[in-house]
Amino acid sequence: MRGNHEEKLIAWRTDPSVPLGKIHLEVALSLREVDWTLLHTAPYWFDLPEHGARIIHAGLLPGLPIEKQDPQTLLHIRSVSVKTVNVRDARGSAKKA
Q1: Which residues lie closer than 8 Å to 59 by C-beta, 6 or more apart?
Q2: pLDDT digits (tens, 9 = 90+) for 67-84
Q3: In which element (H, E) is residue 55 found?
């Protein structure tokens, strides 16, 4: 399943000027082509109908169908309040959705 760390690696491969920390860079440099394919094709969510469950890396906005969720929300959302929805962007900065 795709999470924010996988997304960071994909962003770096697309644009090597994207900053990576030491560990992320070591991982990126060690990946084989088949590993990159796995990252690029990893889903944002996975359904387990036999358990009535859906697995998502971070979370989602209540009341919005999964198909209409912003992938950044699925990767980074931390909390939802009545007044605002707090989402972390790829840099970890708070933004309102």
Answers
A1: 73, 74, 77, 78, 80
A2: 999 999 999 988 877 665
A3: strand 53-56
